[in-house]
């Protein structure tokens, strides 16, 4: 329906899963408020015995709309689950790529280290004129080691940050599923009451 289309458009405008979850929670709160309003109407209809048939038809019509709204919410929840699955796959893929980069840097570092060490050994056997070159090579080696350590620290921070993001998405998804379960239980009780 138009409402679902507008909601999907709003979701598409958001950048992060957290913002999309917040929007879904707000939509769910609106549906819950509508559901509570319908319960008040039901109590009022029970007091109007003379018009019970007409009022019951009206309640059934409103109930059908509530079912449609719940169906839309379930559809959105399934979409969120698919999005979460894609996010996990993307995170795994990025982790693999970062691991490959780490291995490549390590291999390059080891190769460069071996080359520099060989050059240092050769230079040490030469005359005093080459002493300055040995010093420069040692400084280059230290710079490479520092860069490698900084890269390792940066990669660790990236992995920890992505792990925290994934835990946050999982927690919000679990909360959304629990809220939908509670809504289903209320709907079932109302159905039995009618």
TrEMBL record:
Entry-linked InterPro entries: Taxilin_fam
UniProt similarity note: Belongs to the taxilin family.
Keyword annotations: Coiled coil
Name the record gives this protein: Beta-taxilin
GO molecular function, one term: syntaxin binding
Signal peptide bounds: none
A UniProt-annotated Pfam family: Taxilin
Segments forming a coiled coil: 28-140, 166-193
